[in-house]
Amino acid sequence: MLTALAVENYRSLRRVVVPLGQLTVVTGANGSGKSSLYRVLRLLAEFSRNGAVAGMAREGGLDSTLWAGPGRTARGEPLALRLGFAGDDFGYAADLGVPVPGQSMFNRDPEIKAEAVWAGPVLRPSALLAERGGPVVRLRDEGGGWEMVPHHLKPFDSMLSELADPQRAPDLLVLRERIRGWRFYDHLRTDMDAPARRLQIGTRTMVLAHDGSDGAAALQTIREIGDAHGLDEAVDHAFPGSKLEIVNSDGRFELLLHQPGLWRPLGSAELSDGTLRYLLLVAALLSPRPPELLVLNEPETSLHPELLGPLGELIARVAEDTQVIVVTHARALLSELAGHAPDLHTIELVKDEGATTVAGLGMLEEPPWYWPDR
To answer: Are 169 and 240 found together in one domain?
Structure first.
């Protein structure tokens, strides 16, 4: 389980270290930094696929993502964007900075200046498993000493993606695969042209696509080899007396919802945005192959207020086995989650002179955190 998330100089997140629990809700007013904290988690996941630099480019590059307020760097320190996480057994951090001037047309891409992987919740010299400074990487060997990697890493390559090897760096391999298993849902499409509203080729679908395009197949997979009772219960709780049916038309699946008082079921093309979105969230939450970490960004979007109760109850139940982070501005959803999860961990973000801070969290209450040296 992740126990802490840390970031420096990312948009309004000048310096934030937040504790995480089994079920964590990130809330706050519009513009308080909720979406930025969500993007930090996504960027961390991108390091496992060597996509962090490209991910930042999609956000406008390093210049656009760096904190633009006062005190961006301490005196004598280089400009840096730092992000990392700590867990019960592993931690990871990365330091990105501006490139050395050169002739490349890609000279505005950020460079990975430092990385570290460590055992346990806190980075300390004795816990280091792998360390990178510039292009040079060293790995902890079986005897507790250090082995230098014979070739240098490119400034745009992460050691998580390039050096994870079952023989030389098994710890990096384990961590990389765990990060690759994280799931993010922030763009479940329910517009009239959404793929989920059309018939789709049906195959066993253990994990719902990020846009919900294979929703019918994912729901049928849950019914056949997953928590079918939980699926029916989630539908009935949200739409009393209703039943979900997946029909197969020559290999193409369609979602139908039978509702009391209607002579025929409604197809996915006829469902309201909120109804379809709720069903897709059910498919994501009840995956027969649950992840270690599931992150939902504003799942309440387009949902009727009456659906927040069933959704909150379902999220709380799933969080008993899967670590869940929910980013939301809906107080009603927060209230529902609190009612079903007594150990709910709440992070309320606020702005202070343009910088995001955590309400009620003082410096002495933050999780201990140290950044790797360049």
So the answer is: no
